[in-house]
Amino acid sequence: MLAENIKSNTPMRQPPADYCPPESANWFVIPSGDDAGKTMFYSDCRVGSGEPIATIVFVHGNPECSYTYRHIRDALIVSGQPMRLIAMDHIGFGLSDQADFEMVDMHHAANLKHLIAHLDLTDVSLVVHDWGGPIGIGAFIDQPERVRNLLVMNTTVFPMALDGMTYKNYPFRWLPWSGTPYWVPARLWGGVAAYVVSHAAPQSAASFVTGVGRSCMRFVRAGFEPGSPEYVWSEPLRTRINALSSMRNVYQAARWGHGYRYRDARHGWQDTHDFHAGIQSRIADVWGEQGRNIAVCGYFGGWDPCGQDSVVAQWHAALPRMREHTHRFPEVGHFIEEYKGPEMAASLLAMNLEG
């Protein structure tokens, strides 16, 4: 059983039986960088018979983990098509080692680069959500030939328009997402994560506040049943440093794609401006019409800044092949993969079977 073979210091000691496919759990020790020596969990599963039609790499965001892709993964497995499915947990999330500083997307991308080299991944179908967008794309952008096609969901790598819906006024103007770390202490952060990932649908302010409050109370009382999705989202955030690292990504959301600077207690000043600018200056050239012109598909939940018209338009301008393969769902919020997994699996199959 997976629970008996955990090789990291994650706080989550009782993952659900379906956390990853049988015999797919792997542990990778990061060889260098700020997280040298830390152990990253990843699932590497080969399904179907014959030569894989695709190597699908799932990159998660915050405050989730690889388990958020279970619905897409399971639909792909049921399809019977031969594929290789890879999903990692970033440091501080899921079954990977705990963080020891406040990490953001550029740090996770640096770790992912090591895993890409270790597995020598090629012909990749890259699937990204939330901060997984800049993490996954940031890890592959310097070796773009490794990527065959791309599926994005409620994420962006571009400077988000600062008017309209942003994380400074969503989900409610008086209760913005980027401000939640100011009023929620680290010891309750797992309760916030449990609610927002599993309840990503349009709702009233009263419903949201009540739901988050109840979720935080359950988290404090260790009331989430091991094996439940809420347990998976919340339990890795039971330690203060993991919670603080997750919360740092939320602070950063106020400046999504514009660059963000902050001081970490261990490593001093951290600055994401060059990291984001490097992605933005290259993505159209390497994967757009003037480059490899890869197939791209987009899934966007409408109740979210990453699902607004301006964000979708930025994707279309950089990667025009997405225009014919954009799916929008106004009744869904940020964590669209919790609702539309089978549809995304069908899109991935179509991209890879059609070539």
Structural class: alpha/beta
Mean pLDDT reading: 97
Encode the helix/strand succession as letters.
EEEHEHEHEEEHHHHHEEHEHEH
Largest sheet: 8 strands, mixed
Helicity, as a percent range: 25-40%
| C-alpha end-to-end distance | 37 Å
Low-confidence stretches: none
Number of strands: 12
Tell me the fraction of residues in β-strands, as a range.
15-25%
Anisotropy-based shape: globular
Please list the strands of the largest sheet in the order they lie side by side.
Answer: 1-2-4-3-5-6-11-12
What is the number of helical segments per DSSP (H or I, 4+ residues)?
11
Radius of gyration over C-alpha positions, nearest whole angstrom? 19 Å
Which properties best describe this structure?
355 residues; alpha/beta; eight-stranded mixed sheet; two-stranded antiparallel sheet; 11 helices; globular
What does this structure look like?
The chain has 355 residues and is α/β, with parallel strands linked by helices. The protein is built from eleven helices and twelve strands. The strands form three sheets. Strands 1-2-4-3-5-6-11-12 form an eight-stranded mixed β-sheet, with helices on both faces. A two-stranded antiparallel ribbon has the order 7-8. It has a two-stranded antiparallel sheet with strand order 9-10. α1 (70-79) links the parallel β3 and β4 (83-88). The protein is globular and about 50 Å long. It starts with 24 loop residues before the first strand and ends with a helix. The model has no long low-confidence stretch (mean pLDDT 97).
